[in-house]
Amino acid sequence: MLKSLLKTAFSVFLLFFSAASVAAESDNEKPAQPEKTSNYQPLIERYILDELKAIRQDQQALRAEMEEKVAHARLDASDRAIRYTSDTLNNMFIIITTAASILVLMGWRSMRDVRSKLNEVVETKINELTQEYEDRLHELEGKLRKRSQEIIDAQEDISKSNEIHSIWMRAGLESNLHQKIKLYDEILAISPEDIEALIYKADAAFELGDYEWAFSLANRAIDQDEDYGLAYWQRACANAANGATQEALNDIKMAIKKAPKLADELEREPAFNELHKLEEFEALRPQV
């Protein structure tokens, strides 16, 4: 359309230029003649004006057409933007609906159920952790309590051992048999299962001439420990003093069996002086 307008304007320009040339030539050829008005000049002017009017109309039409196309292009862009936004919103609603459907199928029908389930899970986990740490704390308290009791018991044992050792030292320095027996009783009061104290007490009773008491104390020592040879030895002394020869020989045999080194003391034990004449006793002596 623009090309046609250009062609029309060019033709109008040529016509106007030819008309002007013709008029100039006529003026040059007849300078002395009086001026005459051409009959074609109004027609040419009219033609030119019509052409100019047509050109303006074509320009207006072209402008209107361009504006219409621009408006249509803008409308198309707006439509595409609106369509894209609408599709995006639809997709989001579809995703949300699908997620809600999945939550419904899983049993979580609402956000309230989700929050309740979450709180339940968190509370359960916290309770498990709390119980675990409580168990550890109780176990640690038990170990500390046991350790403390062991330390207290050890301190008591050390204190008792120190006290018993002190009493033994005093008993070793004491020459009075009755005082020795009292000291041995103090040891037995602290440690009733102290066999050594029982044997030394039985020996002190034997030296005091109370053979029955010595026999009883030796029996107590044997009841506490049947493998303690010196207890049988002390009971053999009491039996020999009481005239129970066979019982004394049996206890001597048992004492040597439990503690073989006691055989070396047979010759030096005064309680067995009456037994030296017996062949069974002589057989117990170690062979030189």
TrEMBL record:
Keyword rRNA-binding: no
Segments traversing the membrane: 89-108
UniProt keyword list: Coiled coil, Membrane, Signal, Transmembrane, Transmembrane helix
Domain of life: Bacteria
SMART domains: TPR (SM00028)
Protein name: Tetratricopeptide repeat protein
Positions in coiled-coil regions: 49-76, 119-157
Signal peptide segment: 1-23
